[in-house]
Amino acid sequence: MSTITKAPSYSEGLKELQNNLATMLPDEALAVFDTDAKQLQQTHTSILQKKVGDQAPLFSLSNAVDETISLQSLLKKGKVVLTFYRGNWCPYCNLQLNQYQQVLHEIKALGANLVAISPQSADASLSTKEKNALKFEVLSDNGNIVARQFTTVFTNAESSVSAMAALGIDFNSFYTDDSQELPVPAVFIIEQDGTISFAKAIDGDYRNRVEASTILSALQEKNTVK
């Protein structure tokens, strides 16, 4: 149980991040993003497309250095913790991935490998990996082909895209298409036989993410049952 007590707290990190953003961003932009997040929370109440007990769809995607990585090859090495995130520009994604990196050793010790998937281009995925010093695979799911099999995919609000542009962030530059579609963040644990043993999305509000400690608890519980 000691590994779980060492896990960073996303909820605490979120408070610090939001305090920092409040000092960095204009009130108008913060209001747009807050309205968008609350609307998504109300709209997306049934998020997961795959549940515990389901078989995970097999897939092959490019990683940050344009190598093809398949779920089948990953499962040969152990169980897989799969997390879907929005993009390199999203501070909440960076916070989440950074915290997952901090418990990567514990995840591996519990017999699993961590993989993060977004609809970003390989270049943007590489930027994500470098920015957060990630030591796990970051895969590019162009068009959200894989994401929509696991979680909900939606079109980013034009108001948020415009607010980002006003801050000097070109949303579409991170992606290979102009669909402006994003996945609702979600985490899955896939056993070596392809069965999903853990599936969780907090809600439609992209600021809310699955805690690292929750993932460790789920991995430990499964190992204890065995």
TrEMBL record:
Keywords: Antioxidant, Disulfide bond, Oxidoreductase, Peroxidase, Redox-active center
InterPro entries linked: AhpC/TSA (IPR000866), Peroxiredoxin_BCP/PrxQ (IPR050924), Thioredoxin-like_sf (IPR036249), Thioredoxin_domain (IPR013766)
EC number: 1.11.1.24
One BP term from GO: cell redox homeostasis
GO cellular component, one term: cytoplasm
Catalytic activity: a hydroperoxide + [thioredoxin]-dithiol = an alcohol + [thioredoxin]-disulfide + H2O
Stored PROSITE patterns: THIOREDOXIN_2
Transmembrane segments annotated in the record for this chain: none
Record function comment: Thiol-specific peroxidase that catalyzes the reduction of hydrogen peroxide and organic hydroperoxides to water and alcohols, respectively. Plays a role in cell protection against oxidative stress by detoxifying peroxides and as sensor of hydrogen peroxide-mediated signaling events.
Family of the protein in this entry: Belongs to the peroxiredoxin family. BCP/PrxQ subfamily.
Protein name, UniProt field: thioredoxin-dependent peroxiredoxin
Species annotation: Aquimarina brevivitae
